[in-house]
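User: Hi! I'm working on a homework problem where we have to compare a predicted structure to a textbook description. Could you give me the structure for the chain below?
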Amino acid sequence: MLNVFRREEKKPDHSSLRLKIAATITTFLSVRGLDSLLDTRTAIVMRKDFETFVTLDESGIENRKSVMAVVYLKDMACSELFRKIQADNSTRNSPLGRMALDHLADRVTTEILKQAREPA
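Assistant: Happy to help. Predicted structure tokens:
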């Protein structure tokens, strides 16, 4: 797993977290494949130490008390458009493909930070 934030940080920086989530999504898709993006179980999880990871089985997460936020990719309106752009060889590695990834990562980051601010 990629770690961007030091444990002593109180609050993640939106821009840094977005970059980390984009890298996490890219790595996850390269390992699991494009179809995993729309799997209803696919979720991005953020722990209290700001570690983020993608999972296909939220129920199997160890140390549930350390989880601050869980965002299901199926709930992100832009995930279907991202999938279509990534599925097309002509757009996957184009500026459009990068923009779609950045947009998805930004939406996920916004939702994660929103959930992290809400009282449990």
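For your comparison, note the following. Confidence is low (pLDDT under 50) at residues 5-9. The first strand starts at residue 43 and ends at 47. Good luck with the assignment!
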